[in-house]
Queue: 2 jobs
Job 1
Amino acid sequence: MTVETTRRSFLKFLPLAAVFASIGGAAFRFLRPKLSAATDAWLDVASVSELTGPQPVSRKIVAEQITGWAITTEEHNVFVLPAKNNQVVSAICPHEGCEVAWEQNTNRFSCPCHESYFAADGSRISGPARRGLDALPARVQDGKLQVQYISKEQATRA
Amino acid sequence: MRSPDDIRSWLQTTTGAVVVLLAVQFLTGVLLAFYYVPSVDHAYTTVSYIEKVVSSGSWVRSLHHYGSQWLSVFVFIHVIRLFWDGAYASKRIQWIAAILLLGLVMAAGGTGYSLPWDARAFFSTRVAEGLMAGLPFAGGMARLWLLGSSEISPVTLSRFFALHVLVIPALIGAVVVWRLFRSQMAEFFGPRDAIVGTLVFLALALWALKHPAPLGPPVAEAGADYLPRPGAQFLWLYQSLKYIPGGLGSIVGVVLPGIVLAVLIALPWLKRQRLIAGSLLGLGVVLVVVMTTASYLSDRRDPRTAQQFARQTAAEEAWRHQPFNPATITLTAATTPASGGAPVLYTKFCASCHGTQGQGAQQGPLKFPPLLDVPSKPRRSVDDIVALLKDPTAYGLQPPMRSFSTKLTEEQMREIAEWIVKLKR
């Protein structure tokens, strides 16, 4: 085959390539991720009256999120810090997003994944995390401590 | 000037249409799999999501839906063209590959129709079930193997899904690769194939833009008057089944097509090839054309049917304009929502005996009283309940009800008591 005929047959395939480019374009739009929408509802954490003593208190909040084709109701761990005027922090480690646990004997939060440690007021002690545990927006309404959920994406953002 | 040879070589380009349509089916199928979930509680929701929310989703699904029907037609034309050329004698591999492809493409269409799990899908699965059950000798067994169970169930949908997206595409891929390895690329897919393929795709793309793929109501919401129809490539079978009594439908729908495909595959080794293939394909064309036309005509002529279809079309159109209705997924251990439900400490200390919502419970011989409407009873105010939690015997209660004075603070007891007095039967 000469160069000329090769080019001519290549040109004949061009419309086909253009056609499949249209599927490619649709594929990009089709697969483009959609951000999930967390509700900004205020969620009950605890009665203020039951928050006594210096130890962080583990609580669960149940938050709704619209993700893709479903409304997902998911439980999230938070800690109330009586030592810090009942601030509520997310249990999600700001390093890579594992869940920290409170260690009573050493009086600190520890992350099971990469050994980040946090003090009873949520501030960073040591480890790969670059900052302390994230505080959730909180308020007290009718004697109840309430928070707004923040997503993992927000919580682990640098 | 067009020479007869020139026209003849344009007629050779059915391969181009088939290859392009196969590529469209693969690409759009992969895209749909990014959102589709093969489970009876989420299939319909995910397909609706593709239709209503995902960008270009309706177009991609319509390409896949109508592409499967066009593909069946073009593979059939391809087979007839190969027959015309006498490929069963001169190009055996092309011939066998084309027949295998015809069977596989029909199987893909049949299994794919069940996946959206709308009313049409459900009836289509029912018909597939009936066709299997009516098979001679092994009917009962064939039905069980198709459904994976004794009834159409979540297992059935998984089976159709696995066949549709894994087994059948793998077999189609194997046939195409086999065919490709045994031929020169230029002979397999030349520039003229590219042009024909492009035109076929353009036509399909425009058609799909104008016509979204149908989606019936969810199975649970379909009324008794819902009229399902199969995909266009199965209308001949659908119409034929109207004329055939009972179990004989399986003969026409499964056994005869199976025998015809087997004979056509074996054709290169048979005698009187042209007579056998000519009469089988000729009968096939006549059956498909006559029955498909009859199906369209009978749907159009009966005014009641036409009215019902108009209602269904209007309902589907209205559905398309409604906002997407998401599914609800609960990923919590808690049985009650945090707000408005039972206090956490009630759930921890009381719910195992008195029920998560105070409804009472029974464990073996032990009956635990419900806590509903307690304020209507004597000595059951909030203060009484707090006192009762501290000292149950003072209120005449017996074990296993015990004192919680070491477990709960006064405030915690009060929170529980205040929640309990609101419980209504």
Job 2
Amino acid sequence: MFFRCSPFFRYKVFLFIVISLLSSNLVAKEHTDFVNQLISQARNEKTWLQRDWKALIHYSPDMFGSGFKSLVDDADFFLAEQGQTSPQLELEATIKYLFNSSFQEQSIACRFPARVAFLTKALLIKDLKTPALKCIKLNNWLKNLQADSLTLVFPVSVLNSPGSLFGHTFLRLDKKEEKKPDLLAWTINYAAQTDGEKGVSFAIKGLFGGYPGKFTLAPYYSRVKEYSDIESRDMWEYQLNFNQQEIKLLLLHLWELLPSYSNYFFVDENCAYQLLALLQVAKPELKLIDQFYWDASPAATIRALVEMPGLLKDIKFRPSNRRIIAARASQLSVADKVMARDLGEGELLLTNKSLMTHKNQAEILELAYDYVAYLEATDKKILIDFDDNSQDTQVLLYQLLSARNKLTKRVKKAAIETPRYRPDQSHKGHRLGIRAAYEEPEYYFQIDYRWAYHDLYDPSNGFAKGAQLEFLKPAFRYYPEQNSLKLEAIDFVNIISSPARNYFIRPLSWEVSVALKRHRFDENYRPLMGDFNLGVGVSYELSKRTYATFIASTQILIADDFNQYIALSGGGKMRVISNVTDNWQVGVSAQIMQFYQGISHTAYHFGGTQRVSIGRNNAIVIDVTKVQELGDDYLKAQLSWQYYF
Amino acid sequence: MLTKKIYLTVTVWVSIFLLSACASMTSDSTSGSTANTTESFSDLTSSVSGSSSDDGEETQKAEVLAFVKLNYNRVRSDIAIGEGEHLEALATLLAVDKAKHSQFYAMTKNNFNQLFNSSDTTAEDFVAHLYLELSQEKI
């Protein structure tokens, strides 16, 4: 193209280039001075030590406690090469990039708007000396998300999905002023990007930070579907006291984080922890994340938020679809419930006469539809035994609605009781137990510690009924007569899931445990053994406060004492537990197991347990059991004090 | 002694397998519905991140469709009954005036069999039909 230009034109172009080079040099000089001035100012004031800056870059004390390390692991998040470990270098690099005259200034400023806001404020920059920032993408994004209220949502844990054992938390951006329905609000979620990986490699990677964790945005309706409809989890919505300005800061910082990843650790650097870090950027005066150096369970982080004075505005309970169905069913008579279920399972036709003339036809049709939709969402179609003539689920769903549509009756919504205790009102996860006990013929003291989380006889307020989840519980016994201290057991995992069955929802109960434990041949010989248990069964609610569980179980013991080192047994157990009051619980249990491999022997135990809670974080437990393990039977009685922290 | 070592190794692995906090295991949930969920939002999120065109009408249509697709069973039953949280959200997405919501609910309930003509009616069919009804009813 160039050679076609006239000489005169060429001369003009040359002149233009020279002039612009000269002027840009001048501008560059001015900018360098400005940058140097800012850097020396920052060095004087040690600006990088400010809490806001540490929060923005997610610095946390490093392993030795002497320096810092950012929890963000993506190199793109840092402007200085050693930015991940040096707050000062990162701050200086940010100043250089932001206020330099190069063309990058716009893109860097638009990439890190929260840093710009911080530096402008911290260094009292009045005149940015950069062209006015026009971050079109950022501004559009902000306009869509900007909210006037912030809600932290906690879908409670369900034991049937290993990924949700401890519950989960995410943030919701509400537009209360324009009364936007909650379902349409945006949510901010932090999760491991696992690409559907499961099983052992999933767990190992999750524990040791093998997955990148990222923030993602999704409408609340998709979360409600996922948790309430598919996973049957109740959700607690904690509306937090954040004003528009703070929410904007939070969003600006979220914008910085969206493209970056941090290694995801299940135990500490997890969803709950990262959300706290995000909240802390918006309200740096909250000292939230310092409390969670070692581990951060979602329930514990919510407890911390609730305990912050003035931070909580309102709490709402969103029952799971399963709970709604149960509530609707409880309004109907048994005959009507059976009708709804039969309709849903294809055993009763819509043309049935007694249905067509039934005064509760609308209620029955709605319940039948909800039931089929529930089965479909939770993928429990196998439970429906359609006969050959009947058509598939989709047709049934459509017909049920079509029939319901013809009725004009308005069905009164079932009132659903909000549970009297919220997850944040539950006892804390770590537990210390001190027990004085008698095990025929000896007295002993036992001390045990549990890392997490809840057992059937812990104070049950705020927990799902019939759920137990224990990890890592070492126990030591001291025998005063022999003056000896011995390792009694290490429970690695002990999970019990015993949800009650009803007309519509019929979940199975199950339990699993893995431990290293002493088992008694006789009073002088109690060797440590590997102990695996697995059981499946059913649970029913006997009254509002009482439930019973029946389990068929199998046990594997591993020790040198058995033929080929292994003993197998099969048997069953039952348990009835009642929360007589919120603070007083009683339970009885019995178990019988027949060993048929490795040793031939019948083992059993039966007994009772009582627990009285004192406040939220203390409990006294008494249990008396008659036990027969691998030898003769004996009596065991324990008085325990349990402290939760 | 060897057995104990083997046992210990197994134990640790099993406990590790079971130990996991708040990983949102979207992929673990049953059926493909959640997988679809995440997919359908990448569009929406990108419209939020400002990359798609500023055509308001197209964005609204995309949002309505994403919402209906994901909550088809809910939307359909709310319409059949004539009320519900998902129906309210749908009306809001369609920018139906708050004062005219009950009119909208009545219109959709009365037209249930046209909007959903059989069990084969897809979310796309329904949304297309709904826009048509809306333009005629002038809500």
